[in-house]
Structure formats: C-alpha cells, structure tokens
Amino acid sequence: AALVLAGLVAGGRTEVNRLYHIDRGYEHLDDKLASLGAHVERVRE
C-alpha cells in the first residue's frame, strides 16, 4: 500500500501490478482512494 500512496503523489501515471496483494490486506482501497479524488482504474490484461 505504501507504493500505491507514493504513486498518488508522484507526477504522471502510476501502474500497479499484482493487485491481489493489496486486495488481500485492504478492503475496497480503490473506492476509498477514488472518494479522496484519485483516478483509479482496474484493467485486466
């Protein structure tokens, strides 16, 4: 989660892979970040 937060304050676009690690420990993190104004998009490859 610390790298996700670092990506939020970094300029430009940040891509995070292997989200299952984050999903395992943080419930609805993408929704919570979006409620704070972050643009969050989940993309399947």
Q: In short, what is this structure?
A:
With 45 residues, this protein is mainly alpha-helical. It has helices spanning 2-9, 20-25, 29-35.
Which features does this protein show?
45 residues, mainly alpha, 47% helix, globular
Question: How would you characterize the overall build of this protein?
Answer:
The protein is mainly alpha-helical and 45 residues long. The chain has one domain. Helices cover 47% and strands 0% of the residues. The chain has three helices and no strands. The longest helix is centred in the first third of the chain and has 8 residues. The protein is globular and about 25 Å long. The chain starts with a helix and ends in a 10-residue tail after the last helix. The mean pLDDT is 90.
Helical proportion, percent range: 40-55%
The helix/strand series, from N terminus to C terminus, equals: HHH
Number of strands: 0
Overall 3D form: globular
Summed up, the domain count is 1
Structural class: mainly alpha
Rg, rounded, reads: 10 Å
Mean pLDDT: 90
Low-confidence segments: none
How many helices does DSSP assign? 3
Strand content: under 5%
